[in-house]
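User: You have something folded?
Assistant:
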Amino acid sequence: MANHRLTLFILAVFFLAGTTTAGTASGETSSSKFITSSCTNTTYPTLCIQSLSPYAETIKRNPAQLAQFALIVTLNHSESAGVFLHKLTESKGLNSRERSAVGDCLEEVNDSLDRVKNSIGELKNVDRVKGREFILHMSNVQTWISSALTDENTCMDGFSGQEITGRVQSSVRAQIIDVAHFTSNALALINHFVEKHS
């Protein structure tokens, strides 16, 4: 009789453990589906899914969290680009035109960084506000991220002339295009969040 009760107890434990695991797995799947479906609204959906999927458990199905993490990912890539450009300005292999263009680009990236940081701060409490206050907060975020994207495009304009070609142009271009893609995706997710909330 005791053995029978022990067996039933063990089976019950395994059943409950299995139910919990299945629930967690379905929750993760639900979060992943939310990210995938949300990323279809972006310009670079594959990049969007790849960059945000690692945060699925935290994002869950929360559009504000999704936008927040999209901005955090953008910030990380912007900071990397800024470090790269700063090192490049100190390189002895640049001519005066290249050095000037890289310096201007670094300023644009730093401006972009500030706008992204401001947007992350603005989004922190957006779940707690409604109506006109929500619109005000989100309008700030939309304006800043649109401006950040403009900053990145302005950086690239400095490398569009024939005076700068080759390694410097291609390396800077690769960095800025990377950041611009993440910024564009973040803006699309923010815009979609505002549309759904309105």
The chain has a mean pLDDT of 84. Residues 134 and 197 are 9 Å apart (CA to CA). The helical segments are 2-39, 45-52, 56-59, 63-89, 96-123, 131-157, 166-197.
